[in-house]
């Protein structure tokens, strides 16, 4: 590696080798899951009879876009749902969640989150923070049940919170950027069963961002009515240049489609231009790309724990998403870490990330990403608000070697700048 002049010292290289040797079993388990998910995707593509013409696109209204229809059928098969909406017209994950919610709620209905505070960007969608066009402005009320202190569902409180107005029950699988564990499929299943026991016809929506292909099952396998995510995260496989998906029951997906396009149009319009190929190919690659990101996360957790920094999840923990946080304890370390990730990137490697104010955040935030698809967090990236406890969130890596290189460069930076605890490296 030194041959390529990444500036990584032999101490760090030796440390990396030792760290990696301890991870063989974890990596084998990740590879095995990727293999199962790879076959799931190929089987779905075979069953849906994907053909070469599906890879082409349409223009204008996009009527009879066979590629789009077959792609949506592939997603429905992968997520084991009746239907799916997978479109470049969906701008991002927040947009997908917004239309899934707005399409399935009516004035007077209540939205109940049972996994606590939702992802930041949803606060304005829902109207937790007032915003023009929020669900609140359309007469949709919101309540939430927080997770218990140990990060599990508060099933008793959920039972009590469901009322006659409760229409959509939302669950967020990934921790996002919160201090709580991500919710594994088996736990989500218990929460869904609990909701169904009280209210059979509730629409259960799972925000699946960052979770796709980490486990063998997805929320559609355990009874969710709506499964929603972003294509510039796991299921886009690094190739999708834009987009989101909503998989679920025919009725719920149809309601979301009406909100995306217009009443009377629904899923029938929406040209795919020339993205179909990247959607299909990205989904095909997604299981192994997700596995690469997971290995990078596990390697980071193991390396940083050995260096004396708390990693969450720990290297041996069960995972249900690709997010890794490391508590670095000082702003200098956060900046050195971000710089390492940036400098290891294939794009914009020469840039030095700095902390700056960001809309919606109270403290300055530093972000590192040198990505082929702007902002894609399935690619190697890291972000951190500059505030105690100075934790950095790290995710992605289209290939394991690239994720590993990023981590090594973060460690080398900390070492060079004398920011590692005494006696480590
Ligand atoms: C990323 C993410 C979103 C929003 O997706 P964007 O594409 O950034 O709009 C929503 N929920 C969770 C849990 C996420 O990780």
Description:
This protein is an alpha/beta fold and 425 residues long. The protein contains eleven helices and twelve strands. Strands 1-7-6-5-4-2-3 form a seven-stranded mixed sheet, with helices on both faces. A five-stranded antiparallel sheet has the order 8-9-12-11-10, with helices on one face. Helix 7 links the parallel strand 4 and strand 5. Helix 1 crosses helix 9, helix 9 packs parallel to helix 11 (400-416) and helix 10 packs across helix 11 (400-416). The mean pLDDT is 96. Pyridoxal-5'-phosphate binds at residues 92-94, 119, 121, 172, 174, 176, 207, 209-210, 230.
Brief rundown of the structure:
The chain has 425 residues and is of the alpha/beta class.
Give the number of DSSP strands.
12
Bound molecules: pyridoxal-5'-phosphate
Helix content range = 25-40%
Low-confidence stretches: none
Summed up, the helix count is 11
Radius of gyration of CA atoms, rounded to a whole number: 21 Å
**Helix and strand succession?**
HHHEHEHEHEHEEEHHEEHEEEH
The residue-averaged pLDDT reads 96
Q: Helices and strands: which structural class?
A: alpha/beta
Strand % is: 5-15%
Shape: globular
Mind describing the biggest β-sheet? 7 strands, mixed
Strand order of the largest sheet: 1-7-6-5-4-2-3
Q: What distance lies between the first and last C-alpha atoms, to the nearest angstrom?
A: 18 Å
Topology:
Elements: H1 10-21, H2 24-47, H3 66-78, E1 83-87, H4 93-104, E2 110-113, H5 122-126, E3 141-144, H6 155-161, E4 166-172, H7 185-198, E5 203-207, E6 226-230, E7 244-248, H8 250-260, H9 276-306, E8 311-312, E9 324-327, H10 331-343, E10 365-369, E11 381-385, E12 391-395, H11 400-416
Parallel strand pairs: 2-3, 2-4, 4-5, 5-6
Antiparallel strand pairs: 1-7, 6-7, 8-9, 9-12, 10-11, 11-12
Helix pairs in contact: 1-9, 2-3, 2-9, 4-8, 9-11, 10-11
The structure holds pyridoxal-5'-phosphate (PLP).
């Amino acid at each position: 590696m030194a041959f390529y002049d990444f500036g990584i010292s032999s101490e760090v290289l030796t440390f990396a080798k030792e760290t990696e040797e301890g991870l063989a079993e974890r990596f084998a388990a990740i590879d095995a899951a990727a293999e199962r998910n790879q076959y799931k995707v190929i089987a779905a593509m075979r069953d849906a009879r994907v053909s070469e013409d599906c890879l082409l696109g349409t223009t204008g209204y996009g009527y009879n876009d066979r590629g789009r229809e077959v792609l949506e059928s592939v997603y429905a098969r992968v997520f084991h749902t009746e239907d799916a909406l997978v479109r470049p017209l969906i701008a991002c994950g927040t947009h997908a969640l917004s239309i899934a919610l707005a399409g399935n709620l009516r004035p007077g209905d209540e939205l109940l989150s049972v996994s606590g505070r939702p992802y930041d960007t949803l606060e304005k969608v829902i109207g937790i923070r007032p915003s023009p066009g929020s669900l609140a402005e359309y007469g949709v009320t919101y309540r939430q049940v927080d997770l218990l202190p140990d990060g599990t569902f508060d099933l008793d409180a959920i039972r009590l919170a469901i009322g006659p107005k409760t229409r959509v029950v939302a669950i967020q699988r990934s921790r996002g950027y919160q201090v709580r564990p991500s919710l594994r499929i088996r736990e989500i299943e218990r929460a869904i069963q609990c909701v169904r026991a009280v209210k059979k016809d509730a629409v259960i929506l799972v925000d699946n961002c960052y979770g796709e292909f980490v486990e063998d099952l997805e929320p559609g396998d355990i009874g969710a009515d709506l499964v929603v995510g972003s294509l510039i995260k796991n299921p886009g496989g690094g190739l999708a240049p834009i987009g989101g998906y909503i998989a679920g029951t025919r009725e719920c997906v149809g309601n979301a489609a009406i909100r995306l396009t217009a009443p009377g149009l629904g899923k029938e319009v929406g040209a795919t231009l020339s993205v179909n190929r990247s959607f299909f190919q990205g989904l095909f690659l997604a299981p192994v790309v997700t596995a690469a990101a997971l290995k990078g996360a596990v390697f980071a957790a193991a390396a940083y724990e050995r260096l004396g920094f708390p990693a969450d999840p720990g290297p041996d923990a069960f995972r249900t998403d690709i997010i890794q946080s490391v508590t670095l304890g000082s702003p200098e370390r956060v900046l050195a870490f971000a710089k390492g990730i940036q400098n290891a990137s294939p794009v914009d490697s020469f840039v030095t990330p700095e902390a700056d104010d960001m809309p919606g955040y109270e403290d300055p935030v530093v972000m590192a990403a040198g990505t082929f698809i702007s902002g894609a967090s399935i690619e190697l990236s890291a972000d951190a608000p500059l505030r105690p406890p100075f934790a950095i969130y790290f995710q992605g890596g289209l290939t394991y070697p690239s994720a590993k290189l990023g981590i090594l460069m973060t460690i080398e930076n900390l070492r060079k700048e004398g920011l590692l605890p005494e006696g480590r490296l």
